Amino acid sequence: MLLRERFFRSATAARVAPFVIFVLLTAGQGKFGAASAYWFYLAKTIVGLWLIWEMRAVVAEMRWAFSWEAVAVGVAVFAVWVGIDGGWTTQISLWPKLGLSAVANDAPGAWNPNEHFGSMLALLFIAVRILGSTFIVPPLEEVFYRSFLYRFIANQNFLNVPLNKFLPWPFLATALVFGFSHNEWLAGILCGAAYQWLVLRKNRLGDAMTAHAITNFLLGAWVVGRGVWNFW
What we know:
By secondary structure, the protein is mainly alpha-helical. It has helices spanning 2-9, 11-27, 36-55, 68-83, 91-97, 101-105, 119-154, 168-180, 185-202, 206-226. It is globular, with a radius of gyration of 18 Å. The protein has one domain.
């Protein structure tokens, strides 16, 4: 209850702290041996679920919503994500071309539990990854990027900025930050712009959450079905 009380006292903390906690746990993946990447993902998924539970009464805009636009954007972003392929469209390939190989060397390797565990445990981690990316990641990321960051760039009193107000600089900056938080930076920028467009069009966060969930679920199915673990 203590965390929820702090969220009630600070609109910023309610939207930023859960995302930061989630990112810090992500940073721990693989830092304590190869197997830790998978145990940390399990841990951060459980913690993420708890954080969403604590946020739900405070962040009013964090409500799932369904629309044909959300489905269309979710499927289109997935197609873009797996369709863009070039020698510079990922951070692993981009930074060495710019003479910044050290940045690329810090990037995590492919996420493939089959290389480290027996079939049952590997199946558990794959299921956790798909469920976590589908139901936990979208609310946490959309609240941070679309509800907080976009509006905060425009005005530190971000709650005074309507969700459906188009602002060129915040739109571009948020898309860039979102894009470069992923290895597939170019697809990520386009993805962030598409989700932001949904929020602007619908004047709510829920459609972007749904689109994000659809994208991540389709991507998870693609990774497992095709064995293209580099997308994870």
